[in-house]
Amino acid sequence: MEERKKRDWEAEIATAIDRHWRLLVLLAWLGNCAWLIYSKWNSIHFFALGDTDDNMRMMQVRGLLHGQGWFDLRQYRMNPPFGANIHWSRLVDLPIAGLILALRPLLGGPAAERWAVAIAPMLPYLLMMISLALTARRLIDKRAYPVAFLALFFAGSTNGMFMPERIDHHGCQLALLALCVAALADPKRVRGGLTLGIATALSLAIGLEMIIYLAVVGAAVVLFWVADAEERDRLRAYAVSLAGGTALCFLLFASYANRQAVCDALSPVWLSDALLGGALLYGMAWISPLRWQRRMLMAMYAGAFVAVYHGLMWPHCVQRLEGVSPEVDRLWLSHVKEARPIYTHGWRVALLVVAIPITGAIGWGILAWRQRRDRELLRRVLGAAAPSIVASLLLLWQTRTGPAAQMMATVGAAAMAWTLVPLVWNTKFSALRVVGTMAAVVIGVGAVVPLVLNFIPEPKPTPRDAAIGKANRLCNSLWGYHPIALLPKGMIFTFIDLGPRLITITHHDAVTGPYHRNGEQIADVMNAFRGDADQAHRLVAKYHSTYLMTCPASSTTTIFEAEAPKGFYVQLEEGKVPNWLSPIALPKDSPFKVWKVVG
């Protein structure tokens, strides 16, 4: 009797998880949002936009709200009057601007901005959770999505992209990528194809960071059709929505600068590729030969035709898309940490990042084996697994693929846990059932590494590392910038990474920020602090600078100290101040040093 009651109870819970999945996803999202707001309360209160891109996004939104043109994305508070060329689009600005306008009558201007940047990053988090739930329901089991959410809890790199104040575009791109994977998993072919094409177009409108994964999911749709001619409906829907959606996004969101043949954003380069590719895909779906060999041959010819067209028409976009000069790469881009392989970041960071992708890869393999007898379902499993595996492998190239790798691996991790739990759940020994189930879940969702590392104390930072961390924090704080904001308005010549924050919370202008299209300004700033005082004088005067500002002991200074030990920055730190600079008195505990340019 008790065993029967237990089975009935389990069945009721399983039915509720399946039937009310939308409500449960919404509740899980609200719970996560409440926790994120609680944990980041101080950051919200102090408007702690921690990343340069978050500050620049805020300035882009302010420009829009203050009347700057929809297609004009130049940042005129940098290198005035010419401005800095920013390669983004307005798409991500819209929810932030909408929240500010909605909250301003209730909270006032500063508070409206503060809460807008707190709420905005969590909106795409809902889309991502819905997409992961759909993928798990479609490929594993209709009740498996809570396990994917449990794996998501341990995906620190992914969750970091949706924290309050994280208003750059990466969270939106991750959410759209999750939607692409859910579209591949969709058993309804037309709906899946339309969803995939639209999500791809929107992602391209935001930026090209996900272009490798978007190419993988596009190739998966083509291979679906190669394996089964009945998939032509999915392919046709994808072709139409991809071409039409990309064209519409180009018309609505491409800035004046992006209407040139640039390689790093949605431009005529990628628009023409999408239109050509969409036309070829539609033609392939319309013809659909009966033999799979002919379909494969058509797909290969189409892919080769697009590749040759791209290479001949846009040869400058065959290599790295940033298009930076060797000098800018040497001085700046090669020092960006997230552009380095995962194994260069230390064993602790590497393990935390790769734990879920490795678990997810095993889970995808288990899921494929379980579904091997259902060819149609197996195709969708392999298609959804492909971008996840690719993102995991790309960690060996750049660490910045970590958030995407972790996010897509959560479904694979859920599949692993979903397979392991039944092996111990049905045992007759209750203690073994409880302990075994907990162990299966912990192992399956990739939580072993994060949990174990909690019991391994981190090595105590060296005095130098502690000083660098302190300087980085204080040189981003409202408190630190307050004395700077009290100075009469002027052009401040300072480090590249300080520029976006400076213009966001003070009235001063800056030379540039870490945005690759502004290579001349980036090289000038880096060279000024690395060369001699005369060179620095010429470069500071070039931008009609009023002040020169440094943040001693911050991360940027380690580059100057290591690569230019006799350079201008080191000379300033040693007290060798040229006569064309006059020191400005700041509070003793200020993280900055500022000089007025007097000659």
The biggest sheet, with number of strands, parallel, antiparallel or mixed sense and barrel status, is: 5 strands, mixed
Estimated radius of gyration: 26 Å
Count the E strands. 5
Contiguous runs where pLDDT drops below 50 for at least 5 residues: none
Number of domains: 2
Largest beta sheet: strand ordering: 2-1-3-5-4
Structural class: mainly alpha
Oligomer: single chain
Distance between the termini: 93 Å
The amount of beta strand, in percent, is under 5%
Envelope shape: globular
Helix tally equals 28
Helix content: 55-70%
Average per-residue pLDDT, rounded, comes to 93
What do you see in this structure?
The protein has 599 residues and is an all-alpha fold. It folds into two domains: 123-451, no CATH class; 465-597, Rossmann fold. It contains 28 helices and five strands. It has helices at 2-19, 21-39, 41-45, 52-65, 93-107, 109-119, 123-139, 145-153, 156-159, 170-184, 189-206, 211-227, 232-253, 268-287, 292-313, 326-331, 347-370, 375-393, 402-425, 430-444, 448-453, 463-474, 478-485, 499-505, 519-530, 533-542, 555-563, 568-573, and strands at residues 491-493, 509-510, 547-550, 581-583, 593-597. The chain has a five-stranded mixed beta sheet with strand order 2-1-3-5-4, with helices on one face. Helix 24 (499-505) links the parallel strand 1 (491-493) and strand 2 (509-510). Helix 7 packs parallel to helix 10. The chain is globular, with a radius of gyration of 26 Å.
